[in-house]
Structure prediction request, 388 residues.
Amino acid sequence: MSKITPPTEHFHLFTSESVSEGHPDKLADRISDRILDAFLERDPHSRVACETMLADQCVIVAGEFKTRRLDDFHAVRDSAEILVRQVLRDAGYRSAETGIDPDACEIQVRFNGQSREISQGVDRPDGILGAGDQGLMFGYACDETPELMPAPIVYAHRLVRRQAEARKSGLLPWLGPDAKSQVTFRYSEGSPVQIEAVVLSTQHDAGIGAEMLRAEVRTHIIDPVIPEALRSPAFRTLINPTGSFVTGGPKGDAGLTGRKIIVDTYGGAAPHGGGAFSGKDPSKVDRSAAYMARFLAKQIVARGWARRALVQLAYVIGMAEPVSFMVDTFGTGTEHCSGITSRLRREFDLRPQGIIDALDLLRPIYYPTAAYGHFGRTDLNLPWEVVR
Prediction:
């Protein structure tokens, strides 16, 4: 008789990462969103598509813009250099040697008017707002955390936020603005149960030894964030695994707007349509529809309709109605997905103007979202995180 092997527990590991506000890609996102907010402060109906690149001691801010008054366009363009330098200072950069000098770096501003061909599709003759681009957007929510977000990305964000707090408060004043985190969870039967590994790489002042840095980071950053009860028996911490990390920011690596879209969303736990958020006004469904998809997914889980929910929306440039709307609850729902889809469709207007009105998006609220994620935020009053 052959030996019968008892069933084993189904488990897997899943990892998410985050980056600090001083990471070069996040600097680019923050600059683009600071420019966006400046336009919205002057004209809530501005059309903005702003991209930023940073490399060593150079920042290039470019894009296409439309305002109802030409004076508003010129005012923001003329103040762009001041705004860029302030973002660099806010992130903690002070010198060229360690990242970028906000007072002496070169800043190039290249602002153009919005293409009429795009404008005619968005601001339609019938008065209905068309989608600012084609594309597909995803929203996700789950019951793994109080924020209704996947656990790995929540803890990854907490680590880099704690790094920034320790640096800014003077607790660890020798930390630099540039940092990355990574958290690996063990999932059992689909639920997160233990943390297997934590990685934190942080910029620091010259002369700080690796042994001291690792001890201080473990004590003041990792230990306050990662509860003992969540640590697996094989729990590992890897702090600055490559050793010294003095040169960071744009001097250490170039930065581009939109290169951290998985950090911005769900840490890889859900699909992403590919479109970035930062630097785009709400007529761009890359941003507004992704926010709406998160809002809808969160309603599904918060209302008890499912433990997990994925929402997809898709649009065509110049058209108002989405070409598709899908809900998947992965078998965790209390009713069929088609029933949930129908209920949400009746309750919420998924056209671009309907989304903008429902979430009150024509406001300068975007700069704070450009670091530490756009979803699951408890420190910001974000309309797409409200449960109705």
